[in-house]
C-alpha cells in the first residue's frame, strides 16, 4: 500500500502581509504558539473550574440532606422534651404529676434521647466546611445537655424498675407509697431542671441548623463563577 504524503503547511502567503510590517515570520509563529498555549491553559482552567463546581454542588446537596435529616429527626423528640423551659419557680405542676402517678399506683417516665445526631454533626464539622461553626458549637452544647439528661433519665428508670412491684401493689402502706412518690417527684425535678433547664440551648441548636440549611440553599443558587467566589467566603465564615 502506498504512503500518503502531506506537505508541511506553508504560512508565507498568510503571514506575508504581517511580516511586511516589520515582524519576521519566526516572531509571528512564536506569537501564535504562545497564544495557543495561553488559550489551552485557559480552557484547562475553565474545565477544572466546572469540574470543581460539580463536586461542590454534590457536596452541598449531600450536606444539606444530612442537616435536614438531623433536624427533622431531632425535632420529634426534641420538641417533646426540650421545647418547654423549667426553673424552680415553674416546675411545681410538672413534678406533681410524678407524685400523683405513684399515689395512683402508676408512674410517669421520660425516655432516653439518642445523642448520635449531634455527635455526627460535630464529626462532620471537623472535615466538612459546609457545616458551619455555629452548627458545630451549638451541637456540642446540645450533646453535653442530652448526655446529662440521659444520665438523669437513667436514674429515674432504675428507680421505677426497682420499685415497680411496690408501685402497683394495692396493699402498700400509705407511708411507704408517699415515700416512693416523694422520691419520684425529686427525680423528676432533677430531670427537668438539671437535664433541660431553660432549654435555650435546644432553640439555639435548631436555629443553627435552619440557618445552615438556608445558607447552603443560597450558595447552591449561584452561577458557577459566583459559586467559586462564594466558596472561599463561605469557607472563611464557616
Describe the structure.
The protein has one domain (36-237). The chain has helices at 12-19, 25-82, 92-103, 116-125, 133-162, 164-168, 174-194, 200-220, 224-237. Helix content is 75%, strand content 0%. The mean pLDDT is 82. Helix 2 (25-82) packs across helix 9 (224-237) and helix 5 packs antiparallel against helix 8.
Summed up:
By secondary structure, the chain is mostly helical. It has helices spanning 12-19, 25-82, 92-103, 116-125, 133-162, 164-168, 174-194, 200-220, 224-237.
Question: Can you give keywords for this protein?
Answer:
238 residues, mainly alpha, 9 helices, rod-shaped
Topology, element by element:
Layout: H1 12-19, H2 25-82, H3 92-103, H4 116-125, H5 133-162, H6 164-168, H7 174-194, H8 200-220, H9 224-237
Helix pairs in contact: 2-8, 2-9, 3-7, 4-5, 5-7, 5-8
Uncertain stretches? none
Mean pLDDT: 82
The oligomeric status of these chains comes to single chain
Distance between the termini: 67 Å
Please give the number of β-strands. Answer: 0
Class by SSE composition: mainly alpha
What is the general shape? rod-shaped
Please indicate the count of domains: 1
Amino acid at each position: 500500500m502506498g504512503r500518503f504524503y502531506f506537505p508541511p503547511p506553508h504560512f508565507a502567503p498568510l503571514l506575508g502581509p504581517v511580516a511586511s510590517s516589520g515582524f519576521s515570520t519566526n516572531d509571528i509563529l512564536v506569537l501564535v504558539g504562545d497564544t495557543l498555549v495561553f488559550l489551552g491553559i485557559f480552557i484547562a482552567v475553565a474545565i477544572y473550574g466546572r469540574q470543581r463546581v460539580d463536586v461542590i454542588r454534590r457536596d452541598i446537596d449531600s450536606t444539606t440532606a444530612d442537616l435536614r435529616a438531623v433536624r427533622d429527626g431531632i425535632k420529634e423528640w426534641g420538641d417533646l422534651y426540650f421545647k418547654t423551659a423549667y426553673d424552680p419557680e415553674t416546675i411545681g405542676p410538672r413534678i406533681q404529676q410524678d407524685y400523683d402517678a405513684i399515689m395512683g399506683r402508676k408512674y410517669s417516665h421520660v425516655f432516653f434521647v439518642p445523642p448520635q445526631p449531634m455527635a455526627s454533626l460535630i464529626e462532620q464539622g471537623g472535615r466538612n466546611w459546609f457545616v458551619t461553626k455555629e452548627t458545630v458549637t451549638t451541637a456540642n452544647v446540645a450533646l453535653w445537655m442530652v448526655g446529662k439528661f440521659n444520665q438523669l433519665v437513667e436514674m429515674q428508670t432504675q428507680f421505677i424498675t426497682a420499685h415497680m412491684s411496690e408501685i402497683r401493689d394495692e396493699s402498700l402502706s400509705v407511708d411507704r407509697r408517699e415515700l416512693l412518690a416523694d422520691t419520684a417527684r425529686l427525680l423528676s425535678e432533677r430531670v427537668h431542671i438539671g437535664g433541660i433547664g431553660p432549654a435555650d440551648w435546644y432553640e439555639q441548636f435548631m436555629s443553627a441548623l435552619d440557618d445552615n440549611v438556608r445558607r447552603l440553599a443560597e450558595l447552591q443558587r449561584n452561577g458557577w463563577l459566583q459559586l467559586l467566589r462564594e466558596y472561599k467566603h463561605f469557607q472563611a465564615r464557616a
